[in-house]
Design goal:
Dna Ligase, domain 1, alpha+beta, 19 helices, 3 domains, six-stranded mixed β-sheet, D-amino Acid Aminotransferase, Chain A, domain 1, 544 residues
C-alpha cells in the first residue's frame, strides 16, 4: 500500500488532490517472531514447513496463537496506538512476505479483522490484541498451509507483518462505512462485449464496506465496470439492471461492535450525507431507487482516475496488479479515493485465441453462451464430472455438503487428467441451497468449470471479479463459464452424458449412494474438445 502510494505520487501527481491520506501503523515481522517464541509456537512453525507433518499441529497452533500474550513493551506500544485512534474504527490486515511478493495470489488465505473500537478502554485494548492474534493464527491455519503446499511454498519461511489502518468512512447513525468501496484489476479477464479492452482494467464496485467486493455474496449483486467502456454491463434491459443491482450493504454496527449486512435503504436511512443522487437510479418516480452508480461513472472523473491509477501501478510493478479502495463523496460533490491495498495479480495469460471453429458434424454435449472468464482456448479433456441438477435438487443440506467433499475426492483422484466439471448453481458458494459448496482446493486441478444456472430463477452467474474465489480461478488459469438452460445458444445434452458409463464407483467405491447424482465420464484420447471463445462469450464441448 505504501509503495503504491509512493508510485502514484511520482507518476500520477494529478491524482494527489483526490487521494485520501492513509492513516495506518505498520507492525513489523519482528513482533510476529517474538510472539511465536514467547508463546511456544516457533518450533511448531518450523515443523509446519515439513511436508510429512505440516498439518499435525494446526489445532494446537491455533489454540496457542489465539491465547498468546505480548511482551509488556509491545503491549504498551499497541496501547499508545489505540490512544492515537481514539474511538475511530480500524482494521487489522495481514501483510506477509509471501502474499505480498510476485508469483502467488494468497487470495483470502489470511484474515483481516475490523474493530469497532468502542466502549471502555480496556475492552478496546482487548479487541485490538485479539484481532492481531487472529491474523497471526491465520498464518498457521490448515487452509493457508494447504495453499502453500500446493504452490510449492511450504519450505519458505513465512514472515507476518500487519497493517493497522483507520477505516475510511463516516458514521450514519449506528452504522459506519465508506460511501463506496471496491476492487480494481489492471487487466480484465471477462470480456462480455467486443468493445471491452482487456488491458484497460476493470473494477467491482459496491456501496458500503468493501467486504462485499472481495467476498462472494450469494444473496446479492455488485456493479462490474470495464474501465474503457463504463456504460456497458452484462445485464442489458432496464428490468435486468434493476433485478441484478446491489440490494444489501455491509457496515460496522457501532452498537453491536461487529460487521453486519442489511438492506441498503435501511443502512443509509439515518445518513443525510449519503450521495443517493450520484449512486442510485429510479425506474419510476413512485418506485424506490436502486444502486447503479450511473452518475458517478458518467458525470465525474472517477473512472478516469481509477484507470490512470491502475495503468501507472501496472507499469511500475511491470506486472498486472489488484487494488482495493474506498470512496467518500464530500458535501460539495468532490470525492476522495483511499487506496487500501495493491498487490501483484497472478494472471498467466490474456492473449488466447480460438482459430478453429467447433466442427459442425461432431455431436455437442454442451453449448454455452453468455458468461466466460479467462482467455480463449481449446481444451482436450479426458474426464468429465457432471453433478446432475435434478438429483442434486432433491438432496438435503448435509448431503449437498457431502457432494462437495465427493467432488474434492474426484479432483484429487484426477491428478493426471484434463478435467471439466459441470454442476448446478454457484461453485464455491457458502449456501448449499445455491450451488455446490466446494473450497477451491477441492477443484484446483480442474481445467474448465461450468455453472449451470438452474438452481434458482433469479440467480445469475456470480461474475465476481476481484473476489478471493475468482482470483484463485484466475491464478490457476482455470476457464469459468456459465450455461443458461432454456436461453438461446445454451444447451446441455444430459441424455448423451448420462448414457455414457460412469466411473464414479471404480474411483470411489464408498460413493454408491450418490451414484445417480455425480456422473464421471472418461473420454478416449482426442475424442473430446472444448472450444472457448472469450470474445464471443461462447463455449462448446464436442465429443465424437
Amino acid at each position: 500500500m505504501l509503495l503504491a502510494r509512493a508510485v502514484l505520487r511520482r507518476d500520477a501527481a494529478q491524482l494527489d488532490a483526490r487521494l485520501e491520506a492513509h492513516d495506518s501503523f505498520y507492525v513489523g515481522t519482528d513482533v510476529f517472531d517474538t510472539f511465536l517464541i514467547h508463546n511456544d509456537l516457533w518450533w511448531i512453525g518450523r515443523r509446519q514447513r515439513d511436508p510429512a507433518e505440516f498439518l499435525n499441529e494446526v489445532d494446537e497452533a491455533r489454540r496457542r496463537a489465539l491465547g498468546g500474550v505480548f511482551s509488556p513493551s509491545t503491549r504498551r506500544q499497541f496501547e499508545e496506538m489505540l490512544d492515537y485512534f481514539g474511538e475511530w474504527p480500524f482494521i487489522v490486515r495481514s501483510s506477509s512476505r509471501l502474499e505480498d511478493r510476485y508469483g502467488n495470489a494468497f487470495a483470502g488465505q489470511y484474515d483481516s479483522v475490523f474493530c469497532s473500537n468502542r466502549g471502555p478502554w480496556q475492552q478496546r485494548v482487548a479487541e485490538l490484541l485479539a484481532a492481531i492474534r487472529q491474523v497471526y493464527a491465520s498464518s498457521m491455519s490448515e487452509e493457508a498451509l494447504r495453499y502453500r503446499e500446493r504452490r510449492g511454498l511450504l519450505g519458505d519461511n513465512e514472515q507476518m507483518a500487519v497493517l493497522i489502518m483507520r477505516v475510511s468512512g463516516t458514521a450514519g447513525g449506528r452504522y459506519f462505512h465508506p460511501h463506496a468501496a471496491g476492487v480494481g484489476l489492471s487487466v480484465n479477464p471477462y470480456r462480455w462485449n467486443p468493445r471491452i479492452d482487456m488491458m484497460a482494467g476493470v473494477i467491482r464496485l459496491v456501496a458500503g464496506l468493501g467486504t462485499r467486493a472481495v467476498d462472494r455474496s450469494d444473496d446479492d449483486f455488485t456493479r462490474l465496470v470495464a474501465l474503457n467502456a463504463p456504460d456497458l454491463r452484462p445485464a442489458t434491459s432496464f428490468g435486468e439492471i434493476a433485478r441484478h443491482s446491489q440490494r444489501r450493504m455491509d457496515a460496522i454496527d457501532l452498537l453491536e461492535d461487529r460487521v453486519v449486512s442489511g438492506p441498503f435503504a435501511e443502512m443509509v436511512r439515518d445518513n443525510p450525507d449519503f450521495p443517493l443522487d450520484l449512486f442510485t437510479t429510479r425506474e419510476d418516480w413512485d418506485k424506490p431507487p436502486f444502486l447503479t452508480f450511473d452518475r458517478l461513472l458518467a458525470e465525474t472523473s472517477f473512472v478516469a482516475d481509477l484507470r490512470t491509477m491502475l495503468e501507472r501501478l501496472h507499469a511500475a510493478y511491470r506486472h498486472p496488479v489488484e487494488i482495493e479502495f474506498a470512496l467518500n463523496v464530500l458535501t460539495d460533490g468532490r470525492y476522495r479515493i483511499n487506496l487500501l491495498q495493491c498487490r501483484p495479480l497472478q494472471v498467466r495469460s490474456l492473449e488466447g485465441t480460438v482459430s478453429v471453429a467447433p466442427p459442425a458434424d461432431v455431436p455437442r454435449l454442451v453449448d454455452a453462451q453468455g458468461a466466460v472468464i479467462g482467455p480463449s482456448r481449446i481444451i482436450r479433456p479426458d474426464r468429465l464430472i457432471h453433478v446432475v441438477q435434478s438429483r442434486y435438487a432433491e438432496l438435503r443440506q448435509d448431503d449437498r455438503v457431502a457432494i462437495a467433499r465427493l467432488v474434492g475426492a474426484l479432483n484429487r483422484a484426477s491428478a493426471d487428467r484434463t478435467l471439466v466439471v459441470l454442476g448446478p448453481g454457484r461453485w464455491g458458494t457458502r449456501d448449499p441451497w445455491l450451488g455446490v459448496p466446494v473450497s477451491f482446493s477441492e477443484i484446483n486441478r480442474v481445467a474448465a468449470l461450468c455453472e449451470i444456472v438452474a438452481m434458482n430463477d433469479n440467480l445469475i452467474p456470480d461474475v465476481s471479479l476481484g473476489t478471493h474465489f475468482l482470483n484463485e480461478l484466475i491464478e490457476a488459469d482455470m476457464l469459468y463459464f456459465a450455461l443458461f438452460p432454456g436461453r438461446s445458444g445454451n444447451r446441455i445434452d444430459e441424455e448423451a452424458i448420462l448414457g455414457r458409463p460412469s466411473r464414479l464407483l471404480e474411483l470411489l467405491p464408498h460413493a454408491r449412494r450418490f451414484a445417480d447424482v455425480v456422473h464421471v465420464v472418461d473420454f478416449e484420447p482426442g475424442s473430446a474438445t472444448l472450444f472457448a471463445d472469450a470474445e464471443r462469450q461462447q463455449v462448446v464441448l464436442a465429443c465424437a
